Amino acid sequence: MPPTVNVEPTDVELLAQINAGSEDALRTLMRRHDALIRYTVFRFSRDRCRADPAWLDDIAASCWAALAERVRSDRAVPDNLPGLLVTLARNRTISAVRTEDRAIARAVRYAQQRTSENDLSDDASTIIERFEELNRLREILAGLEEPDRRVLAELPLILDRRWTEAARRLDMPESTLRSVWATLKDKIRAGWPDR
Fold first, then answer.
1. Per the count of CB atoms within 10 A, which of 4, 26, 54, 164 is most buried?
2. How many C-beta atoms lie closer than 10 Å to residue 48's C-beta?
3. CB 7 within 8 Å of CB 14
4. pLDDT per residue over 21-68, tens digit each?
5. CA geometry: angle at 89 spanning 87 and 90, to 5°?
6. Closest CA to 84 of 73, 93, 76
7. CB–CB of 154/169 below 8 Å?
């Protein structure tokens, strides 16, 4: 009697099982392809992953949730699952980085505004809290070295992803600017309370 060969199911077969509600099939796909997702996330946000390992976990988990939702909603899944997973990981990473960049930029713009708080419709505690946040952010920015302040001056270009133009204006290579920007965000984050 010939020995039985244990044949692993293909990605397509596993996706069909996930569509039918199998959690085991999803776990099998995760064992098979999670490293690919994590590599892609790391490739697109290396500095952020090093600064906060949970960043990588969060984005990887969101990719798997998106895949499961896509499969269970009967949306077409390509035969090339690794290609789809790379695309999901790349897009979710870029989106998360942009969202974080915008949040930091809003805080910086808020701190740089010299207008006084005229909205008296808020209660006193909210106004005091806003002033405390503004003062804390001003302290953080005041503690930055001159090269970091020069980079912040090009914030509109950086947020528009016009790296080449910003780098030219700062007279530095684009790759250096990207690295400096990631480090600068970490400095601002590190100085912020409850971070």
1. 26
2. 21
3. no
4. 888 888 998 999 999 999 988 888 888 888 777 888 888 988 988 888
5. 65
6. 76
7. yes
